[in-house]
Design brief:
Bound molecules: 4'-deoxy-4'-aminopyridoxal-5'-phosphate
CATH class of the largest domain: Alpha Beta
CATH superfamily of the largest domain: D-amino Acid Aminotransferase, subunit A, domain 2
Order of helices and strands: EEHEEHHEEHEHEEEEHEHEEEH
Strand content: 25-35%
Shape: globular
Largest sheet: 9 strands, mixed
Number of domains: 2
CATH architecture of the largest domain: Alpha-Beta Barrel
Length: 284
Amino acid sequence: RTVYVNGEYLPEDQATVSVFDRGFLMADAVYEVVSVLDGKLLDFAGHMTRLARSLDALAMTNPMSADEYLDAHRQLIERNGITDGLIYLQVTRGNPGDRDFAYPPEGTAPTVVMFTQSKPGLADSPVAQTGLKIVSVEDLRWGRRDIKTVQLLYPSMAKMEAKARGVDDAWLTEDGTVTEGTSNNAYIVKGGKIITRELSHDILHGITRAAVLRFAREAQMQVEERSFTIAEAQEADEAFITSASSFVMPVVEIDGKQVGKGDVGPVATRLREIYLEESRKSAV
Ligand code: PMP
C-alpha cells in the first residue's frame, strides 16, 4: 500500500510517526472514514465538514483545505488502484517533542495520516441479506461522543464482548436507552416509523445517518428522532444500523431475541437501496 503522511506518499513500511506524537501518547487526534464505490468518494463533503467540527471542538487548526483533502483522497485511490473500499484519515495534534498534558505551543504542526482499505464488493455484502445479531453493552465512553476522536478502546472492548457472546456487534446503552452501536448509529422501525436517537453530545453525528434520514423524509417515510430502550427495539418490526462502511445494515436479533420476524425487513432494505443509489449519484 501507498499511504499518506504529512504531504508525502510513501510505501507503508517507510511511513513513520514520532513516538512523541500526541495521537499515539494521548489519543489526541480525530479521524474520518470515507467509503469508495467505483473509485468515487461517498458523502465526501459531509465527512470533511464533520472533520472540521471535530478539530474545532478540540481547538486544533485544520491543516488542510477541503480541496487538498479531496486531492489526497483521489491520489490514494489512484495510487492503490481502489475500486471499492475505505479511506481512513487521521489528524493528530502532532509532536511537541516531549510528553506533557498541556497542549503544545502554537505552531506545532499537526500530523496527517491517510491510508486505503480495499474492500471489493463493499456494497454487495451478503450480511445485508441476512442481517446482524447484536447484544447490548453498557455505554462507558466519555461525554463528547460527537467529537470523532481516536479514543476507540471502549468500542473495541464492546465489540470483543459481542464476539465472545457469539454475535456480530453491540449496541451501547446508557440510563436504559440505546445511544448507538460501537461504530454505527442505531435505529428501529415501528408501524412504518423510523426511530433513531436525537443528536446531542451522547452520539456521533453520523454522516450516513444524516443522508439516510434526508432520503427517508424525501420518500415520505416517517422519522422520529428520540431515544429508545432495548425492550422497545426487541418489540420493533425492524432494526438496523448505518455507517460509512456498512451503509444501511439490518439487525435481526438483539440480546438473543429476534426482531420482528427475525429476517431482513422492507424498510431497512429500501433505505439501503435508496442510500446506495443516491450517494453513488453525488459521489465525487
Ligand atoms: N457512531 C459511531 C460511534 C461511529 O464510530 C460511527 C462510524 N465512524 C458512526 C456512528 C457512523 O458514522 P458515519 O455514518 O459518519 O460513518
